[in-house]
Every structure is written in C-alpha cells, then in structure tokens.
Amino acid sequence: MPATFIGVRHHSPACARLIEAKIEALKPAHVLVEGPADMNARIGELLLDHELPVAIFSSYRDEERSHASWSPFCAYSPEWVALTTGRKVGAELRFIDLPAWHPAFATRTNRYADAEQRHTSAVERLCELFAVDNVDALWDHLFEIAAPEGLAERLEAYFDVIRGEAVAGEEDAQREEYMAAWVRAAVADAGDRPVVVVTGGFHRPAVMRLSSAATPAAGWPDVPTVPATAIGGSYVIPYSYRRLDAFDGYQSGMPSPQYYHQLWATDAAAAGEALVGSVVARLRKRKQPVSTADLIAARSLASGLALVRGHSVPGRVDVLDGLLAALVTEPLDVRPPWTGRGRLRAGTDPVVVEMIAALSGEKVGRLHPDTPLPPLLHDVDSELERFGVPEAGSMSLDLTSERGLGTSRVLHRLRVLQVPGYVRDRGPSIRSDPVLVEDWTIERVEMRLPRLIEAGAYGGTLAAAAGAALEERFTESGPDARKIAQVLFDVALCGIEDLSERITDHAAELISTTANLAALGLLLDVALGLWRHDRIFGAARSTRLAPIISAGVRRALWLAEGIRGGAAPADPERLFAIVAVRDSVLHAGTLLDTSREAVAAVFERLAADPDVPPDMRGASFGFAWALGKVGDVERAVRGAGNSKILGDWLAGLFALAREEVLELEGGVGVLKVIDELVGGMTERDFLVALPSLRQAFVFFPPRERESIAKALLEARGKHGSASILLRTTADPAVMAWALDVEQRVDDVLRREKLVDLEGG
What we know:
The protein is of the alpha/beta class. It has 33 helices and ten strands. The protein has a four-stranded parallel β-sheet, with helices on both faces. It has a three-stranded antiparallel β-sheet with strand order 4-3-7, covered by helices on one side. A hairpin with a 4-residue loop joins strand 3 and strand 4. Helix 11 crosses helix 12. It is elongated and about 110 Å long.
C-alpha cells in the first residue's frame, strides 16, 4: 500500500488536527516524521511525560565547524501530535531526516525553517491576491480560522504552489533523498498496512516523487553518527513560548504561541476572546488604563473587521487590529509588528509591545525527572556542591584564599557559558584597581536548565565547556583587540590554563593586523597587568603572555608613527595606549624584541614633528622624559603655549610623565611656566584653552591636584585653603560661558560708545 503524505506548516493547529484525524482513521503500521534520525533510539525519552514545550537540542563541534540547532515541540505542533497519536494507535514511530548537526543544516539554527521564508515570491502573490499583509495572516485566512472542510486539499494546493516556484538547493535535495529512503523502507516493511509520512509542506512533493521513483528497499537507512574527532549529539531540553515566538526572533513556525495554544485547545472564537482577555489583563497589570468601553470597542471593531475580511469569527489579526484601534490613540512611529515578520522594531508603541507579549505567553516547559542529561550538568552540580554555592542567595569571596578563588572560577565559568542566575556585583575588572573580594548574587531562574544543557555542546566538564566557549569567542573576535583583551581577562578569571597558551600565541599573530591603537592599548594593558600583578589568578610572570606584550609594543610603535592630523583634540584612549607601551618598556623590557633606545627614538621623532597631533607630541615628550631622556622641559612647554593646543599637549605630557612633572622642583617648575602662559592669555584665548586644560589636569588624582593648587598659592605668595580652589559653586564650563558672554557684551557697549568701561 502506498504511503500517505501529509505536508504541514510547523506549529500549525490546523495541520495538527488533520494529522490526528488521519492517523486515528488509518491506524498505520509506521508514522514517519520529519525530525533528527539520530533520536530514533530515544523517542521514548522524548515522549516521557514532559510539560510542554520542549525541544531537541542538537550540537556539533570539531576543529573545522561548530553548530547548534533546536527542534521545538509544543502541544499543537503537527510533529508532536503525529508522534503521540501514532503511539496511541500502536504505530512504529521514526524520525526520517538527517541529524540536525549534519552539514546539510550548517546554515540554520532551527531545522523547521519554513519554506515561505526561503521562497517568498509565490507567497507574496498569494498575499496580494487575498489582500493580507504577510504569510501569517495568509495562513490564518486560508487554514486556521477557515472552515475545516477540504483542509487537506487546500493544504496540498498551497504547498504545490510554494514548491512549484522554487528549486531545492543542494542541502534540501540531500535531506529529501534521505527522507525518501526511509519512506521506501517503511513501505517495504509495512506490507499491506498503511504508512503515514509527516513532513514540512515544502518537502512533501519531492519526497513523494523520490519515494516512488525507486524500488522499495529492505532494511532501514543508516543513521549518520558524530565522528570520533568531534563532540556532539542531541538532548531533550525545556523550551518556552517566548523562544517559540516569531516576534522574538524564532526562524520558523507561527507567531503568538499563546493564541495558537488556545486555538488548539478550543476554537477560533474562544481563542479570540482569550486573546482580548489576556491583552487587557496584562495592560491593567502594567497600570495601563483600559476601560470597559475600550473593551467593548475593541470587540466591536474586531467583529467588524472579521466581517469585512470574510472571516466567520475574528482571527488573530482581526483582534489585534481591533485592540490597536481602541487602545492606541496616538499616531504610530512603527508599523504594527503583525503586518510583517521578525523581531519587534525599536520605537514600537509600548501598548503594542504589551499586546505582543500577551500573545506570546509565559509558558515554560519542564522535563520529566527521568530525562537523561548531558555530563556537563552532573559536573556543574558536583562543583557547586563542592564549593557550597547555594541555589539562591549571595556570596562574598576572598580571592586570596584557595576556596574563595576556586568558587570564583566556578561562577565565572558559568558566567562565560551565559548560564542565567549568576551575577557578579563586584570584583576584578579590566583597568581597575586591584580588588581581592568578589560579591555574587545567585537566583533561581527557570531557563538555567535548558541553557546548561545547551552549554553541554561545549564539553562534558565545566572547565572544558567554559574553555571551548572562550575559544569560540576568541575566534569570533578576529583582530579586534578589545574583544581579545576581554577574552584574555576572562581566561584568567576562569583559571583555564591549557586555553591560555593557545589564545596568547594566536593573539600575538592577530595583533600584527590590528589598526586601532586605543584597542591595542587595552589589550597590552591587560596582558602587562596580568604579567606584573596577577598572583591571584596565576598569570604573574607567565611566559605565555610574553608574545602578546612583545607584539603589542611593536605594533603600537608602528601605529603611533602613522598618526598625523595637526591640532586634533586629545584622545584619552590613545594616550592610555602609549602609557601601556611605556609601562611595558619600563617593567617588561626583557620580554620585548625592540630595544629601549629604538623605542625612545620613535617618540623623540614624534615629539618634534609638527604634523603630529598635540596630545601625541606631548605624550611623546613625556615618554622620553619617563625613560630618563630629559630635554629642556621649560622650552618644550613654552613651545606648546598656543591657546588652541596647550591643553591637548599637556594632556599627553601628564598622561605619560605625571610623576616626573610633580618631582621636578615639587612640580613648581613646569606649573610655573604653565601659570605664566595662562596668565598671559587674553580672556578669549583663555576660554578657548579652558576645556582642554581641564581635561589635561584630570590625569592628576584629587590629592595631587590639591598639592598643585597649594604650590601655586605659595608661588604667588598667597595663603589659604588649596582644597577650596578645587571646589566651585558652579560648573566651570558655565562660568567660562558667562565670562565669554560678559566679554561680548563689553565689546558691544564699547563699539556703540554706550559706556566708558575704562573710566568706570
């Protein structure tokens, strides 16, 4: 007996009802379902008494490729109904598609990627013909809220039109041939008994043709297995309606899962009523005013729209349009999301956002206790128990103790795996003062289990999984020095020693291609900081950091010599990069393959080049000063005395030689020259110079700024509190603006001879 083929749209209640009725009527020997064939030996595990939705999570990782994908199931998924109804009538159940980690799925994160998303021309013509906005509204109009009579025939015609417009790609062709081989084997095994085949509607015509094109085969097709050189497999995980929603980025199936759940459990009329009720309840919970009159208006508008659109009862879009018209009185900046597909756009009206959230629902699946879990979860539970990490609460960790450091590493490994519920409130961070205590907040989060199962794709232990996740982040960073710096710091926080060497070697190679001096400075600063000070995390004096420091200095010198641009504003990030080069030369010179003299020569050239921005010239002079090559400091400061560049030049000098400035005659030598230059400026020039001067002195901490103020008072023979000079009753920028306004007013008064300012 030939097989019965049913093409479906994934997560369609109408298709699920059709399948349930067909299987109950035929009582087939085999029910074949589009799904990962590597789960066939574990279908019993999938059909445990889980609380839906759940998903099959499949992963694959080797040196060439990493892949993860999800195959979700909810109560109204046609594939789920095929399995449960088939089991009820005694049929043998099999998935017949290639495993989701197979190269045929390399470009997808979800196996149920709808054909409509990949082949849109026919759908666009159908939408125009039926005067609807998109495929979801079209589908509701044709199938979900339409009369059930003739549903099978309408589905076949619809999918024939879709497939008729598209040529299957190589990946689809490979999958369809594999599914057809399972159908041939099932038909041969069933003899005179029926076989029911459930696939995506796009694949149905091809699988039918391929199944009948060859002689039925004896024996089932081989199921591809994960190579011994790779890590991968499939597990059942909890899922949620939010992740299932097209408005939240889900690539296939239907939007608004809570609505379709109601449609499956009841009927279209009741689902529409439930939709209105859930939206109103959610808005009122958010303190949004929704009156009884608004509710009556929304229902009346939905009914009127349904009548105009030829619907016997209001459908999803009818109800949404009715609610929108009744509840949103202001013009919309963004079109309603149900007129398209994909994630909500920025600027969507808040009421509309709440409407979409109400339709999405908050249902989260839960696994049966007997569900097998990947090894990672057992290792995580063991590590959390070993270090006494509570299920919920707070922890303060002493990083100088072995236990505190071990606990910190466990929590950081969970963090880099993006396991929810573990939040660090305080602790070591990039470019911060050393912190020897970490504070963590731990919460119970429903999505912790699915994320841990998904993280199992990275490895069987917490250390291995975190290491693989960090290595993946590092690979994705490319030559972005900022991202490399963060990965390097996270490697230290996680204490993953074997990964550090691989990352540092490769990072040194990537440094040679980076073009961003500021980002490179951050990476160099992190590497040098770990090498100099990191006794807590075990990186101090580590030889594995030497290639990064050496390559970073070499590349920074090359980038610095290429900076030109005249009087550009001071760039603090760029200056911090030069500070990192200075510190590398001063504290890690033995690691460098560039001599101290060669480095000094670069900055001597930059300091004297008028085409170099002022902050870089000042920094270059300060760099040479920090290396002990002191020139004529007073002459250099006077050379930068122009009000347009003085502050920027000083910013560079103070960034690189702050301590040297303070040590030179207690700071009075340099500051006396600056005071003289500023005192000789006109008010207009002073206002021009003020913003950059303020930025320059930021490089001194508050205590040192007070010392400078005290020295200036003494140099002028004044007595008083230096700290008062650092505190003003108004914003200095506002004061400068006021001085400028007064000067302009005075100029106008003089010009118009309205007042004799000199004579009072």
